[in-house]
Write a structure and sequence with these properties.
This protein has one domain: Alpha-Beta Barrel (TIM Barrel). The strands form two sheets. Strands 3-2-1-9-8-7-6 form a seven-stranded parallel beta sheet. The protein has a two-stranded antiparallel ribbon with strand order 4-5. It contains ten helices and nine strands. The longest helix is centred in the middle third of the chain and has 18 residues. α4 packs parallel to α5. β4 and β5 form a beta hairpin. Helices cover 38% and strands 12% of the residues. InterPro entries: DpdA (IPR055645). This is DeoxyPurine in DNA protein A domain-containing protein. It holds the Pfam family DpdA.
Length: 264
């Protein structure tokens, strides 16, 4: 399993060969382009897009152009997320959650799934060469099964895809419900990517994932003093801290998981 460090610091790509996970929007105003030393993947930024706007404001064709610029200037990425539609309650219903305001799409889970699949098909049609990965969305196991059916009915063989994103599990990934979703989707033989996985989730279902990403290191650092010799207030944007956190997370996993988990 490949474990990506999520960051908004795109220049880290030239500083480390550890797998990194970045949003496409982080290159929107790029003047200097840093060539990647190691593997990286690109997130579409869907959570914040839907949280703040209740819909996608970036047309698929523009997103493809952005992805192509990143590919050409930074180097080939492992894969890029589509412009999918998350199915968390906050995204759909809107309101205040965890001190943040969500506009809300006020659509059904089924409509989010339909739009997710349609967007993937459109992006794949516009740019079949750009390694855009399908994402399965839902709220409970039956929802995810229905999303799989939508892909199958559209002629997409998810088992043949190099990676299949598993959406809307970030807040569930350490729970029984989240484990049930991961287990059910892994049973199909998909090469799953877990978005936003933390230590407990990795300990529980990491062996069922092909890859995962996490930004938990940043919030972890925000509530702790900086590393010795570091002059910033905290290490929430600090590569050495992120690398130490990553090493600690991987070494804390069961011994039988470790040889493959940190594979490059």
């Amino acid at each position: 399993m490949r474990f990506y460090l999520t960051t908004h610091k795109r220049h880290w790509l030239r500083l480390t060969d550890v797998p990194l996970f970045l949003k496409s929007e982080h290159w929107d105003r790029a003047i200097k382009w840093d060539e990647a030393r190691g593997p990286y993947a690109v997130d579409s930024g869907g959570f914040m897009e839907l949280k703040d706007n209740g819909t996608w404001t970036r047309p698929p064709r523009q997103y493809v152009q952005d992805l192509r610029r990143i590919w050409e200037h930074v180097g080939p990425y492992d894969w890029a997320a589509p412009q999918d539609w998350m199915c968390e309650d906050a995204i759909i219903n809107g309101g205040w959650f965890g001190g943040q305001y969500f506009v809300g799409t006020h659509l059904s889970v089924g409509e989010h799934q339909r739009r997710t699949v349609e967007n993937f098909l459109e992006l794949r049609s516009l740019a079949p060469d750009l390694r855009i990965a399908p994402v399965i969305q839902g709220r409970r196991v039956p929802d995810y099964e229905r999303c799989v059916e939508l892909y199958e009915n559209a002629g997409v063989d998810l088992r043949a895809e190099p990676v299949v994103g598993l959406g809307s599990v970030c807040r569930l990934q350490s729970s029984r419900e989240g484990a049930a979703i991961v287990t059910a989707m892994a049973a199909h033989g998909f090469k799953l990517h877990g978005f936003g996985f933390k230590t407990l989730g990795l300990e529980r279902v990491g062996h069922l994932l092909a890859s995962a990403d996490s930004a938990a290191w940043s919030s972890h650092a925000r509530h702790r003093p900086p590393l010795p010799g570091h002059t910033h207030k905290n290490c929430a944007n600090c590569l050495p801290y992120a690398l130490r956190w990553r090493t600690r997370v991987l070494s804390a996993l069961p011994t039988w998981q470790q040889p493959t988990l940190d594979a490059a």
